[in-house]
Amino acid sequence: QVQLAESGGGLVQAGGSLRLSCAASGRTFSNYAVGWYRQAPGEKREFVAAISRSGDKSYYADSVKGRFTISRDNAKNTAYLQMTSLKPEDTAVYYCYVVRFGSDISWGQGTQVTVSS
């Protein structure tokens, strides 16, 4: 199993930026696709973004497209989520995950992002 540790969350004003990091250990990071989900209070966990193993393909939820950028550095076993033009509705706990073969999935513990209006 892969161990994941998110960091970079915090409190930011609307319009501001944050960069989340997801550091992986335990398995070969480059063998896994990486992504982010988020969960707001009382809401279901929702997909935010994902990136392929090599980083050549990325996918985004419509709600964040054009504002968030996912990237990865396989040499550092780390993935990133650059978030800009943040809105209060982006407030949530953000979780990173890695997946391979569709069923080998590991999750991080989450990092809180709070956007004030």
Task: Describe the protein.
The structure is a single chain. By secondary structure, the protein is mostly beta strands. The protein contains no helices and eleven strands. It has strands spanning 3-7, 10-13, 18-25, 33-39, 46-51, 58-60, 68-73, 78-83, 92-100, 104-107, 111-116. The strands form two sheets. Strands 2, 4, 5, 6, 9, 10 and 11 form a seven-stranded mixed sheet that branches. The chain has a four-stranded antiparallel sheet with strand order 1-3-8-7, with no helix packed on it. Strand 5 (46-51) and strand 6 form a beta hairpin. The termini are far apart. The mean pLDDT is 96.
Question: What level of helicity do the residues show?
Answer: under 10%
Q: Work out the strand percent.
A: over 45%
Q: What is the C-alpha radius of gyration, as a whole number of Å?
A: 13 Å
Mean pLDDT: 96
Let me know the number of strands: 11
Low confidence ranges:
none
**Given the C-alpha coordinates, what overall shape results?**
globular
State the major sheet.
7 strands, mixed
List the secondary-structure elements in sequence, H or E. EEEEEEEEEEE
For the record, give the distance between the C-alpha atoms at the N and C termini, rounded to a whole number.
39 Å
**Structural class label:** mainly beta
Tally of contiguous helical segments: 0
